[in-house]
Amino acid sequence: QVQLVESGGGLVQPGGSLRLSCAASGSISSIYIMGWYRQVPGKQRELVATIRSSGSTHYADSVKGRFTISRDNAKNTVYLQMNSLKPKDTAVYYCDAGASEYIYWGQGTQVTVSS
């Protein structure tokens, strides 16, 4: 079992920045990939970024050059640094982790980009 707790969401003006955090606990050693997804009402959850245990990263085209995913292994935490935020980035952001044959999700954190 893996537990994920996100934090760092909030209201920010267009062009601003936020950093999301996802703290993992439980069977940490079994995690091979972690990622961030986002979802707006009425739409499917979409991939934002992932980071593998090897350190390799992947980004959705819509966030490349603006968002950065990173991790702190000592704190069992993955971060999503979001810069140059746009109103279309408004969504609930979810952290996920792949561990063994399971996928675990956090509870989500709201990000609202508005003036």
Could you list some keywords that capture this structure?
mainly beta; 7-stranded mixed sheet; 115 residues; 4-stranded antiparallel sheet
Report on this structure.
The protein has 115 residues and is mainly β. Helix content is 0%, strand content 58%. It contains no helices and eleven strands. Strands 2, 4, 5, 6, 9, 10 and 11 form a seven-stranded mixed beta sheet that branches. Strands 1-3-8-7 form a four-stranded antiparallel beta sheet, with no helix packed on it. Strand 5 and strand 6 form a beta hairpin. It is globular. The protein starts with a strand and ends with a strand. 29% of the residues are buried. The mean pLDDT is 95.
Structural class: mainly beta
Number of helices: 0
Report the uncertain regions.
Answer: none
* Major sheet details: 7 strands, mixed
Mean pLDDT across residues: 95
N-to-C series of helices and strands: EEEEEEEEEEE
Shape: globular
Write the layout of secondary structure elements.
Blueprint: E1 2-7, E2 10-12, E3 18-26, E4 31-39, E5 46-52, E6 57-59, E7 67-72, E8 77-82, E9 91-99, E10 102-105, E11 109-113
Brief rundown of the structure:
The protein is an all-beta fold. It has no helices and eleven strands. 0% of the residues lie in helices and 58% in strands.
